[in-house]
Amino acid sequence: MKKILISNDDGINASGIIRLAKAAQKYGEVWVVAPDFQRSGASHSINLHNSIDVYESDFPVEGVRAFSTTGTPADCVRLGVLSIMPEKPDMVLSGINFGYNAGSDIQYSGTVGAAMEAAFQGIPAIAFSEGTGEGYIITDMYLERILDEAVDYSAKPGEILNINFPTCRPDELKGILRDRFVSSGCIYRDHYTCEEISDGGKRYMVEGVYNEDAEEDSDLKALFDKYISIGIVKNIGYGCLL
What we know:
- It is built from five helices and eleven strands, in the order βαβββαβαβαββββαβ.
- It has 242 residues and is α/β, with parallel strands linked by helices.
- It has a nine-stranded mixed sheet.
- A hairpin with a 5-residue loop joins strand 9 (188-196) and strand 10 (202-210).
- Helix 1 (15-24) runs parallel beside helix 4.
């Protein structure tokens, strides 16, 4: 049986990580190390000059040992792999993220960043994400099937498997598309709104306009066309000298 480490960027109490941990128990011993609250957009950032507090947590899946941290998603994986677990895990699962991690948005994703950190540590990793709204419907129908296929994924150095479940009704789902490349597009085209602050400054807030432009055979195109998307994301580095 495998030793499996699970993390995310939505926080240890998010429904996605609870559902993923429960499903992963079929394949081995499950540990959870996750942020204590929402860390979306953390990418692959880590703490170098600040301490990280860790607390063992009650977790609503029996048999899972869980820890919350004040660190980023990548910190959580580093801590789990290098310090918390008595032995290195055989696999790291990250998610299930609330919202797609596809296209250019991948570079901001804490969910993908956690999986990338696992790849950096030489451990096979899979990132899971689902559409907002009722995206969980398709996820819950197909998660076990996808895990059966992906759990023995043999990663090349510096790469992860990235899986996204679309938001749609079961009768609208068209199937599963594999080997999707990362789109250069994005789900929201961002701009900033601005307002004056009483002290003379200006306050900016990001605002996105929904967009469905995507290349054929890309991850975003698969999701917009109501397919489950499976693809590989490559890390920029692998391993460390020290």
